[in-house]
Write a structure and sequence with these properties.
heterodimer, A: 175 residues, alpha/beta, Glutaredoxin, two-stranded antiparallel ribbon, 5 helices, 19% strand, elongated, B: 637 residues, alpha+beta, six-stranded antiparallel sheet, four-stranded antiparallel sheet, 18 helices
Chain lengths: 175, 637
């Protein structure tokens, strides 16, 4: 074959990749930790800086780790649903308050309610980076053994919960 | 009214671009001088109308016309006027308009300085540029109209993203675009040569200065972007291997290969088809970069708002341009290559290696950038490829490249005798080993393998790039001095050495520390004492901020004061870090405020960054080398 055709062939093979790429949703983000133990962290509590929130706090039951911040509109959007999850006792939610100011975060919880068992205060986004967070809000489902089962980027709602989270919780509980 | 004039001007520019793109190409094919002579006036008219359109958008921003959607989304009454202007190119629609303006400006520059070229060739070059303008004008008018109205008008705007309220942003994108778009000129020259079917050494001489100018703007643009990220994002890094950074870096790598391969084509008439392929690739990668940034296909901190229609449009345009060019290439290139031999030890060999290694590097970056997409398609789920992968992968082609660079620049064309060549390198090699070990060992106190290799490589390039200028300076009375283009090469390579030194030292000896600080606290980092004198509130025009006043001392001796800020922009309610940096030529002391921890304490990130300035200074020296080389006499004929 004419070797001068090779670049053309390469590009013709390459372009469908880009077309397919356009059809996939970049918001469906994976986490490098899916199927692996949750990253180790140690954060001061948001409400009470003297306590620490650590990876060990998550163990023993299915938990939801939610990365949130007051500057993030998506977090405001999902807040009501988180409140509903907490009030129904569906799952304990651990918050990581990310790149935020403590005073604002506290007044946000006061005004909108506090769905979290406890929130860790991650001022310089160290822990956010460890979890591989792209932006807020992001939610991670962690099983009783501390393994990350699923990650969702974007505001949570009932439909997403039923479609993505519930089957995984049931599957993990099945022997 | 003014925004409608802007949009109308864009439509007129499209009509003229069609004339510019179609008539001269037909004229060149039919040998019709009248049709070819349309090229220059049409290009001038197209530039004029794009400029009017751009002016209208600036006017809408400066007069706070919030009935224009784009203005309402990216400006605000209290925004300083300078940032109202730079907000024009802060997002997709306006930056596309700027892209068009720059493309039209390159076109009239080509039209102006191509009078010596054969009429047919010039007509084809301007025609191809016209067709590219048609594509981008259609893109703007059909999917990204910056003049879309908002009804009812907003009372105040949503403000410019605070990250972008910075002098660095005002100049970084325009420079980057001048570089990106500039490769379209090399592309047009390549297409014109293939259309005419004849490509000689003169072609390379015409193409070289345009390519070097585009390359030097791209170099400065990327360096400024890196510098902006360093002080504005508050992380203290200078390169993140973000997809959008990679999008500008790939054309740079290929453009660098192109400059070197053009040198071979000009001097020796070799590598013709390869040079054409590089010219096509450099511009294709610029287009690919545009696609990646503007389609939302890849998640990035830089990515513009996502819109699938835009993605499909650019992809279609990209496919037409690249596939068209490569079909032409497959058809015409086989006839071009001439059989001229060269010995193994010759500059041709080194430039061939340079090209291979740079293309390998660009391919690695491309693979790393697109790997998440490809893996996902093979149903492998989403993966992220991070800086660690790039850092290791990138060293593989770069280390040999750096060592070969010092050898190649002193090797004769065609054939080089081994004896004098070996003698020439004795002094620089000894200097490189001694100085390359002294720098880490005596200044920073330790040395590892990678540090030693990096430092020796850097000093090696610096020393060997000085050989030619020094010889020219000490030459015998009356003998010929160094040519501008050889001097430019020496300067650019000297810059590479500087850059490598900076990268090596800062990655090996940089220190960082995250602590909580109250007023009165002192922290010791890398032998410097950072004392938090005061934490106070300050007001800016559209933000309020907390400012730390940090005094830096070394063994009690006062060194300087920095004022890192944490700003809250009032409209978007977002927090921004404004790092406090105490720069000296050989190190930066970097202090960034994190967050209020309570009890008057703040988390503070303190960094010691030795020789980090060498990175940007090195890049600027490279660009300067390009500037000197294009001023060579033979390009001014």
């Amino acid at each position: 074959m004419n070797r001068f055709l090779l670049p053309l062939v390469a590009v013709v093979v390459f372009i469908p990749i880009l077309i397919l790429g356009l059809n996939t949703d970049p918001r469906k983000l994976p986490s490098p930790y899916i199927g692996k133990p949750a990253p180790q962290f140690e954060l001061p509590g948001l409400k009470d800086p003297s306590i620490t929130v650590t990876t060990a706090s998550l163990e023993g039951r299915m938990t939801l780790v939610n990365i949130w911040a007051t500057w993030c509109v998506g977090c405001r959007a999902e807040h009501q649903y988180l409140m509903q999850l907490a009030q129904q006792g569906t799952i304990p939610i651990y918050g990581i308050n990310w790149r935020d100011s403590r005073t604002q975060a506290l007044s946000w919880l006061e005004q909108l309610g506090d769905p979290y068992v406890v929130s860790g205060f991650d001022a310089d986004a160290r822990v956010g980076i460890d979890w591989g967070a792209y932006g807020a809000p992001e939610s991670f489902l962690v099983n009783p053994q501390g393994i990350v089962l699923y990650r969702f980027a974007g505001p949570l709602n009932q439909a997403i919960w039923e479609r993505e989270f519930q089957p995984r919780i049931l599957e993990d509980a099945a022997p | 009214m003014i925004p409608e004039i802007g949009q109308f001007a864009l439509i007129l520019a499209l009509s003229l671009a069609l004339c510019q793109g179609v008539l001269p190409l037909i004229g060149a094919h039919r040998d019709d001088a009248a049709m070819m002579s349309v090229a220059r006036p049409a290009a001038a008219g197209q530039f004029l109308f794009v400029a009017v359109s751009f002016g209208c958008l600036i006017w809408a921003f400066v007069t706070d016309d919030f009935s224009v959607l784009y203005v309402a989304n990216h400006s605000q009454l209290a925004l300083p006027t300078g940032y109202k202007i730079s907000a024009v190119w802060s997002a997709h629609e306006g930056s596309l308009l700027m892209w068009l303006l720059i493309l039209a400006a390159w076109t009239i520059a080509v039209a102006r300085y191509s009078k010596e070229l054969p009429q047919k060739f010039a007509a084809r070059v301007i025609g191809v540029l016209g067709l590219l303008s048609v594509g981008f004008l259609l893109f703007a008018l059909l999917t990204s109209n910056p003049f879309e109205r908002l009804h009812p008008a907003a009372i105040d705007g949503a403000d410019l993203n605070p990250l972008l309220q910075d002098p660095g942003l005002a100049i970084h994108p325009p420079l980057l675009y001048v570089g990106y778009v500039g490769f379209s000129v090399a592309f047009a020259f390549a297409i014109a040569a293939m259309l005419s079917g004849d490509l000689d050494q003169k072609w390379a001489r015409w193409t070289r200065p345009w390519t070097v100018i585009a390359w030097l703007f791209l170099t400065v643009g990327i360096a400024l972007g890196s510098w902006w990220a360093y002080y504005e994002l508050g992380w203290g890094g200078w390169w993140f291997w973000d997809p959008v950074e990679n999008a500008s870096f790939m054309p740079w790598l290929i453009g660098t290969a192109l400059i070197h391969s053009l040198a071979v084509t000009e001097r020796r008439g070799l590598f013709k088809s390869w040079t054409l392929l590089l010219a096509i690739s450099a511009f294709s990668l610029s287009l690919l970069g545009t696609f990646l940034v503007r389609s939302g296909i890849i998640v990035s901190v830089h990515a513009f708002a996502t819109d699938p229609t835009r993605g499909y449009f650019i992809l279609a345009f990209l496919a037409i341009v690249i596939i068209g060019a490569l079909i032409l290439y497959a058809w015409r290139a086989p006839a071009l290559d001439s059989a001229v031999g060269f010995r193994l030890l010759s500059r041709e060999t080194f430039l061939l290696l340079n090209n291979v290694l740079l293309v390998v590097a660009a391919t690695l970056v491309l693979l790393g950038t697109l790997a998440p997409l490809i893996v996902e398609m093979l149903n492998g789920g989403k993966i992220s490829i991070g800086p660690p992968w790039f850092q290791v992968a990138f060293l593989v082609p770069m280390l040999p490249l750096i060592f070969l660079l010092g050898l190649g620049m002193h090797t004769a064309w065609r054939s080089q005798d081994l004896g004098p060549w070996q003698r020439l390198f004795r002094v620089p090699a000894i200097i490189a080993i001694i100085v390359g070990l002294i720098i880490p060992l005596f200044i920073y106190g330790r040395v590892g393998l990678l540090v030693a290799v990096g430092c020796i490589a850097a000093v090696w390039i610096v020393a060997s790039s000085l050989i030619q200028p020094l010889r020219s300076w000490r030459r015998a009375e009356g003998s010929a001095g160094i040519s501008r283009s050889a001097l430019g090469m020496s300067i650019a390579h000297f810059g590479v050495g500087f850059f490598v030194l900076g990268v090596t030292i800062v990655s090996a000896f940089g220190e960082e520390s995250d602590r909580a600080m109250r007023a009165g606290d002192t922290i010791d980092v890398a032998g410097f004492q950072f004392e938090m004198r005061e934490i106070r509130d300050v007001q800016g025009p559209n933000y309020s901020a907390v400012e730390g006043v940090v005094e830096i001392r070394r063994d009690g001796e006062y060194i300087g004061t920095v004022r890192p800020q944490k700003r809250q922009y009032l409209v978007q309610q977002s927090w921004m870090t404004e790092a406090g940096i105490h720069p000296t030529w050989n190190k930066d002391l970097f202090v960034a405020l994190g967050d209020r921890i309570g009890g008057g304490a703040w988390s503070v990130r303190i960094q010691y960054k030795p020789m980090i300035r060498f990175i940007w200074v090195g890049a600027f020296i490279m660009a300067l080398g390009g500037l000197v080389s294009v001023s060579d006499r033979r390009y001014r004929q």
